[in-house]
């Protein structure tokens, strides 16, 4: 088994790479900078390809994808003026389209895990924003291109013909991301349990990476969540006086 990780220099993507390697799973990654992987220099299970995914020629990507079983996409717009309002406006969507285009449909079905967000609703589950949430989301869509990108990315996955057996997918939806050092207890739901706008929950990036790794390792878990949009929240630890 071999996994391609996109967004591996980011806070979640790096955790995904680390946890896969700790579990002896071979990883390839395409990254614009490579310094972050210096500590894995001697790890024969990691192959770092220095490139920007959207600028890669299709035949190069096809070659990279040939022996990949899972692609995990943790790409996200950098929190800077250029990252949020500059090009590419559809970084995540365009990257998924390139992966799909260059995945051949001969042989075994490939699998893709997208890091999405609770701000993307799942129509299949009749999820709807309340009136107040819809107003806030409308403003966010106008002002923040990354929200539109996240929504388009999910729309693209849903548009893939499930009959072509080329790519199965799961869109993992964390709520507000937080940084933690250790994996803690987390819960997975079919749909958001809290308002992502007015009452957001918390999800550690390290827990997102852990769940993604479980999806790679556990066939039954994959089958259960295939073509779905699982929501992940940290379990709030009770202190003794609570
Ligand atoms: N903030 C939240 O509370 C929240 C909640 C739920 C979901 N999310 C979503 O979670 C995702 C990942 O979050 P994170 O905090 O782990 O992200 P992050 O640390 O900001 O990482 C972003 C990754 O995307 C890469 N990237 C950015 N622009 C790129 C470009 N033009 N071309 C190629 N690669 C590019 C970065 O690479 P470089 O190092 O080369 O820049 C980095 O590897 C985001 O999509 C975000 O929308 C966020």
Topology record:
Layout: E1 3-6, H1 11-22, E2 27-31, E3 46-50, H2 58-65, E4 70-73, H3 81-85, H4 91-101, E5 110-115, H5 131-143, H6 145-159, E6 167-174, E7 176-178, E8 186-189, E9 202-204, H7 205-217, H8 219-225, E10 231-234
Parallel strand pairs: 1-2, 1-4, 2-3, 4-5, 5-6, 6-10, 7-9
Antiparallel strand pairs: 8-10
Residues 7, 9-13, 32-33, 52-54, 74-78, 88, 91, 115, 117, 146, 150, 174, 176-177, 205 line the site of NADP nicotinamide-adenine-dinucleotide phosphate.
Task: Report mean pLDDT, rounded to a whole number.
Answer: 94
| Ligands present | NADP nicotinamide-adenine-dinucleotide phosphate
- At the fourth level of CATH, the homologous superfamily is NAD(P)-binding Rossmann-like Domain
CATH A-level architecture = 3-Layer(aba) Sandwich
Indicate the CATH topology: Rossmann fold
H and E string: EHEEHEHHEHHEEEEHHE
β content, as a range?
A: 15-25%
